[in-house]
Write a structure and sequence with these properties.
The structure holds two protein chains of two kinds.
Chain A lengths: L14 H21 L1 H22 L17 H31 L1 H6 L5 H29 L8 H26 L6 H14 L7 H7 L1 H9 L1 H13 L5 H21 L17
Helix pairs in contact in A: 1-5, 2-3, 2-5, 3-5, 3-6, 3-7, 3-10, 5-6, 6-10, 6-11, 8-9, 10-11
Chain B lengths: L1 H18 L11 E6 L4 E6 L4 E7 L4 E6 L5 E6 L4 E6 L4 E7 L4 E6 L5 E6 L4 E6 L4 E7 L4 E6 L5 E6 L4 E6 L4 E7 L4 E6 L6 E5 L4 E6 L4 E7 L15 E3 L5 E5 L5 E6 L4 E7 L4 E6 L5 E6 L4 E6 L4 E7 L4 E7 L2
Antiparallel strand pairs in B: 1-2, 1-28, 2-3, 4-5, 5-6, 6-7, 8-9, 9-10, 10-11, 12-13, 13-14, 14-15, 16-17, 17-18, 18-19, 20-21, 21-22, 22-23, 24-25, 25-26, 26-27
The chains are: A mainly alpha, B mainly beta.
Chain lengths: 282, 330
């Protein structure tokens, strides 16, 4: 574990010092992830359960027409793969926010926030660390999916990377924003019900939007305003070497908005963190 | 600590690079002709870009379609006009007509490209046509609803299947007489010879099987069955068969199952089912055998299969009810 070096006299910090801090936070997150094998396995099992069980049951029911970025008919499991990749990142984003609530309760958070480096930078590092962990999970999922005949073009594995980084940052920032408003670890179950499930189900992850439009126009609009839909579509297009500009704009915009929100909320001088006494019900 | 971290990123990058195996090579330029049974047209597709370059108006109910041996003309059986039309590939229009019996469906051209054998669905006959003189040389009485047609690699035997009689008729091309009848499963649709003349494969649409016949003994030696999880067996209706030149792999179109079965000809087992459009019927290889194109009748499109990768790479919209397909170098 590298410790953050404090230099008392100078006003600014050198690039190397920023890098030390980044490395320290990312490395801690990576170690934490590697040591929690159960977490890695559960992060993988979740999408695989969807893939092997849910998709197998639904593959005959949901006939798909050809929609971009696909150029031919695809099996349902191929369709939901990008949605499951985004789901991994969604859970990971929420999980890292959960760990922040835990850190805060355990007092580790103070160690982090006491660092002389600017808070926005510390939180960005934390975000990058979480995203890096989610990338490992997504690529492990893609590897297993490959054996299940879900094989995008080989170049897709590379072109999807920027999309995954951006969507990982967005979902991580969202998690961070939410965690700033949560006072207790127990309240986190609510996040599952009120954030993860609605975001996942009201999106294009499981069904194409044209099919949702056929059954419920209202739900269609909800899905369109759901940033998770755009994270899924951004990943879906990138996996086939294409850019969905609308989704890119939405995901990029939301990332910035959530990050600004999270940084503001974590600022003890004016943010949510000081709103009420710890343990108080919000 | 920092170096350890960097090493980890290096490893990740390396993993990413190994996953990246390179781009697909562009297809050589061939042209594919697709007969559209309902819209009475033939669609021309450029295989270098997989785009439709022209739609040619032909007679009514075009089905069987094949290039002449020199690649300059395309024959198309127009069933409701009771004839075979000839499309000039350079002009991309119908330039001539060959006389067939009533309702021609499928036909086979001999190795020299001089004699055409046509199955006339409504007349229970096979018509023999001299391609150069554009005249009828004779007729052979076969079973009810003749359809599948194929000539053996040595040119000595013509096999015709009759859909209602459920038989494969072995016809001697020299005497033009039926020499044997082999009973197969219900509604035989298509015949494909192995290049070494060791086996004949016949698809039975209603029976849901492909019978393998020893052409020397003229008996069924094996049957291929299909099983797609989640699909009713009635939905599996094998029609078109295409075998690679080396005889190692066969592709079988399974109609309303919307799948093409990939069969290892050595073990005679299905190794993979490829999802294509709705009601897939006939297939054709590009001359280099890199790609296989299949016609999807109900979804009005043609799917392209990468033969080596055994993957469907693209689906192209064509006319209504695409039926047959033929591909040659322009």
């Amino acid at each position: 574990m590298s410790t953050v070096v404090t230099t008392p006299v100078r006003s600014g910090f050198s690039f190397a010092e920023y890098l030390t801090c980044l490395n320290g936070i990312v490395w801690r997150e990576a170690l934490r992830f590697l040591h929690q094998r159960e977490r890695f396995i559960s992060a993988l099992v979740r999408p695989l359960v969807w893939l092997f069980i849910f998709a197998a049951g639904f593959r005959q029911i949901l006939g798909l027409s050809i929609i971009p970025p696909y150029e031919t008919y695809i099996l349902y499991e191929v369709y939901i793969a990008p949605g499951l990749m985004a789901m991994i990142q969604l859970f990971n984003g929420m999980q890292s926010s959960l760990s922040m609530v835990y850190d805060r309760e355990m007092g580790n958070m103070r160690t982090l926030l006491v660092s002389p480096l600017p808070r926005w930078f510390l939180l960005s590092c934390k975000l990058m660390a979480g995203t890096a962990v989610s990338l490992l999970q997504v690529y492990a999922f893609l590897l297993i999916a490959w054996f299940w005949d879900i094989a995008p073009p080989p170049s897709g594995y590379l072109t999807v990377l920027p999309a995954l980084i951006l969507s990982g940052l967005m979902l991580g920032a969202l998690g961070m924003l939410i965690s700033s408003g949560i006072k207790q670890l127990e309240n986190f179950a609510g996040v599952m019900n009120f954030v993860i499930f609605p975001m996942f189900f009201a999106s294009s992850a499981l069904y194409p939007l044209w099919r949702i439009l056929e059954s419920s126009p209202l739900l269609y609009y909800v899905c369109q305003f759901n940033p998770f839909t755009h994270a899924v579509e951004l990943i879906r297009f990138a996996l086939y070497g294409q850019v969905n500009w609308t989704s890119l704009a939405v995901v990029g915009g939301c990332t910035i908005a959530f990050m600004v929100g999270a940084i503001t909320a974590y600022d003890p001088s004016r943010g949510l963190i000081r709103r009420g006494p710890a343990g108080g019900e919000a | 600590m920092k170096t350890d971290g960097l090493r980890m990123w290096d490893r990740c990058l390396l993993l990413g690079m190994t996953a990246w195996l390179g781009m697909a090579t562009p297809a050589a330029a061939y042209i594919a002709y697709v007969s559209n049974e309902k819209s009475n047209t033939v669609t021309v597709i450029d295989t270098s870009s997989w785009t439709v370059t022209k739609t040619i108006k032909v007679g009514q109910r075009p089905r069987g379609i094949e290039f002449t041996r020199d690649g300059k003309f395309v024959f198309v059986a127009v069933g409701d006009d009771d004839s075979i039309q000839v499309i000039d590939v350079a002009k991309q229009e119908v330039v001539d007509t060959l006389p067939s019996g009533p309702d021609p469906e499928l036909f086979a051209l001999d190795a020299e490209g001089k004699i055409l054998y046509v199955a006339n669905e409504n007349d229970n006959t096979v018509t023999i046509i001299d391609v150069e003189k554009r005249t009828r040389l004779g007729e052979i009485q076969v079973g009810v609803e003749p359809e599948g047609m194929a000539i053996s690699p040595d040119g000595k035997t013509l096999i015709n299947t009759s859909e209602t009689t459920n038989m494969a008729h072995f016809i001697d091309t020299a005497t033009r007489q039926i020499v044997a009848n082999v009973l197969v499963d219900a509604r035989p649709r298509f015949v494909e010879f192995k290049r070494d003349n060791s086996e004949v494969w016949i698809s039975s649409e209603i029976g849901g099987t492909v019978s393998i016949i020893d052409p020397a003994k003229r008996t069924v030696i094996d049957k291929i069955t299909f099983n797609i999880p989640g699909l009713r067996s009635e939905a599996i209706q094998p029609v078109g068969i295409s075998m690679t030149k080396d005889g190692k792999t066969a592709f079988i179109a399974l109609g309303p199952a919307n799948r093409v079965a990939v069969v290892d000809t050595a073990t005679r087992k299905v190794t993979k089912y490829l999802l294509v459009g709705q009601r897939v019927w006939h297939l054709a290889f590009t001359p280099d055998e890199k790609y296989l194109m299949v016609t999807n009748g109900v979804s009005n499109d043609v799917s392209v299969i990468d033969v080596a990768a055994q993957k469907v790479i693209k689906t192209i919209q064509v006319g209504e009810l695409p039926w047959g397909i033929t591909i040659a170098a322009p």
